[in-house]
Amino acid sequence: MKKNRINRLFETKKENIFSVYFTAGFPNLDDTVKIIQELEKNGVDLIEIGIPFSDPTADGPTIQHSSEIALKNGMSLHLLFEQLKNIRESVKIPLILMGYFNPVMQFGLEQFCKKCSETGIDGIILPDLPLEEFEAHYKKNFAKNNLHNILLITPQTPEARIRQIDKASNGFIYMVSSAATTGAGKKVEDFQQDYFERIQQMNLKNPRLIGFGISDHDTFANACKYAGGAIIGSAFVKALQSGNELQNSIRDFTKKITGNTKTTAKS
Amino acid sequence: MKYMKYNVNEKGYYGEFGGAWIPEMMYANIDELRHRYLEIIESPEFKKEFDQLLKDYVGRPSPLYFAGRLSEHYGTKVYLKREDLNHTGSHKLNNTVGQILLAEKLGKTRIIAETGAGQHGVATATVCALKGIKCVVYMGDLDVQRQAPNVKKMKMLGAKVIPVHSGNKTLKDATNEAMRDWINNPEDTHYIIGSVVGPHPFPDMVARFQSVISKEMKSQLLEKTGSEFPTRILACVGGGSNAAGAFYHYLDDEQVELIGVEAAGKGVETKETAATLLVGSPGVLHASRTMLMQNRDGQITEPYSISAGLDYPGIGPLHAHLFKTGRAKYMATTDEEVLKAALLLTQKEGIIPALESAHALAALEKIKMKPDDVNVINLSGSGNKDMETYLNYFGY
Ligand SMILES: Cc1ncc(COP(=O)(O)O)c(C=O)c1O
């Protein structure tokens, strides 16, 4: 089996990994491929493609809104796979699908994993698929298709469970920055540095990316001090809303985030 | 152990339904509840406090009333379990009294709740006033408008009512928002869910608190009819808490027919319906694997019912299981049938029922009943909150 692109990324790049989330089908139905290509061109290391859901209970207003528009535009999992059919002809960085369990369940989990593998998807994030259900019912299908299931931890996750999640993970661990739904607009002072430090000192086998509330250069750079990198979602979705040409808004956005950081050259 | 066949297992499942499909952000709270709820609510101290409040504050036991003129009308025996006579006017208070005591034991200082008709919101605001605990209620903006008196009551009781503008602006969306609040406030807050829905252990916990309904029914029926066992029990089903309470102690008594009545809205064959079991399919919503109204892409579709309390696209996992196993039967009654049934009860018995409860009454039109049958209707709430709808429809 070919090495998963997520593992390759973390082997070659140890810091300042720049990861971006966007909702498929937003702002326009057919923007998906273009957004991915532009993000890669502008130095983004890893992309999370959001599968819109009618009831995104872990998301704040920005991603709720983008999901609602995406669904109105006609986005579905079937269509998303259709759009991504040839994505590996132009894009090399790891791609992750992120969404809620129900649309995947209705698509059929086995079929979903197979499609992901055919498409060149490297990982899945389903926040409402708990570790226990995953291990009991779905793990084999993920493994068979070389897909990593990315699990979340939060400031409230007990240490023993963090160890359990570390053991069950094989890509990276998604560190939710604070007790919150997704949403932009936090400041560096809003984050619990002691949580970041506590996790850093746990010597986990998996690398971590920090997400939720990372929105600008300062919060990105701060998160990067404590983990392999950070994930930006709502702030990017907002940037896409600006109405400018995709190419320009993506270039401006990525520049703004990494601008003054010493990002290591992409390998 | 009793009720094994239809009870929740240690993983939180009723057959294939239930579980706790929570995002990791809710894990600490749910894990604490899961580990502690039984130990707390089964403790003699808790039971004593709970029973005392049910008696002196809620006004229990609620009467089991033989509805003579309605019985005559249908040529059978109809009894009404009068949950409408509880303080705050519905069965909802049974659950919120239990959960506020639990929240106290857990050391929580802030309560959140979702509400549809506003009955659960009022019941939550009420117990929060009773205990002097901060209360925030999420309510879909459409429901804020169609249940205005309850909104004012909640405010007078000291609760903060937050209108929810996402989705269809009804119960499902209010539930989403309450879950988001809990994610954002994981330390000090307890979420008082209003029905037998959501992640384990909520469905089981709420069913236990509501089970007082069928417990009382048994002794009241014995006294009035000479037998604990009626021919059938009918209850309306939104999330399913009043029905769960009315069925609970009869689940293993298979000779008792259990009938849940969903909201057909404008008809189960139309898109404007809330009859989840009759038109839905298995899926995961609000952290539970249950029956849902959804499209083929797994997006939840918007339910419709004239009654805000039944306007929910899911159903408690217990009911999904009772449906699947056939232990309970489920049917649906339309807006129009419900309004007629409400008027009939009003003019035959002098009792104005809640629109939700009138769904169960309307089912009497559709069931074959013998003269000696004992039919118990769980009259889950009073029609006070629905006067505007009734007056508009009947033109008084
Ligand atoms: C009077 C009454 N009955 C029934 C319901 C439906 O809830 P459940 O199905 O949980 O009993 C409501 C909900 O608001 C209600 O107010």
Automatic annotation (TrEMBL), chain A:
Its EC number is 4.2.1.20. One of its GO terms (molecular function) is tryptophan synthase activity. The alpha subunit is responsible for the aldol cleavage of indoleglycerol phosphate to indole and glyceraldehyde 3-phosphate. Pathway: Amino-acid biosynthesis; L-tryptophan biosynthesis; L-tryptophan from chorismate: step 5/5. HAMAP family: Trp_synth_alpha (MF_00131). It catalyses: (1S,2R)-1-C-(indol-3-yl)glycerol 3-phosphate + L-serine = D-glyceraldehyde 3-phosphate + L-tryptophan + H2O. Belongs to the TrpA family. One of its GO terms (cellular component) is cytosol. Keywords: Amino-acid biosynthesis, Aromatic amino acid biosynthesis, Lyase, Tryptophan biosynthesis. This is Tryptophan synthase alpha chain. Coiled coil: none annotated. The keyword Lyase applies. InterPro entries: Aldolase_TIM, RibuloseP-bd_barrel, Trp_synthase_suA. The active site is at E48 (proton acceptor), D59 (proton acceptor). Tetramer of two alpha and two beta chains. It comes from Tangfeifania diversioriginum. NCBIfam families: trpA (TIGR00262). The gene is trpA.
TrEMBL record, chain B:
It is an enzyme of class 4 (lyase). Residues 59-381 form the Tryptophan synthase beta chain-like PALP domain. Its EC number is 4.2.1.20. Tetramer of two alpha and two beta chains. Its cofactor is pyridoxal 5'-phosphate. The beta subunit is responsible for the synthesis of L-tryptophan from indole and L-serine. This is Tryptophan synthase beta chain. Belongs to the TrpB family. One of its GO terms (cellular component) is cytoplasm. Pfam families: PALP. Pathway: Amino-acid biosynthesis; L-tryptophan biosynthesis; L-tryptophan from chorismate: step 5/5. One of its GO terms (molecular function) is tryptophan synthase activity. The keyword Ubl conjugation does not apply. Keywords: Amino-acid biosynthesis, Aromatic amino acid biosynthesis, Lyase, Pyridoxal phosphate, Tryptophan biosynthesis. It catalyses: (1S,2R)-1-C-(indol-3-yl)glycerol 3-phosphate + L-serine = D-glyceraldehyde 3-phosphate + L-tryptophan + H2O. The modification N6-(pyridoxal phosphate)lysine is found at K92. SUPFAM superfamilies: Tryptophan synthase beta subunit-like PLP-dependent enzymes. NCBIfam families: trpB.
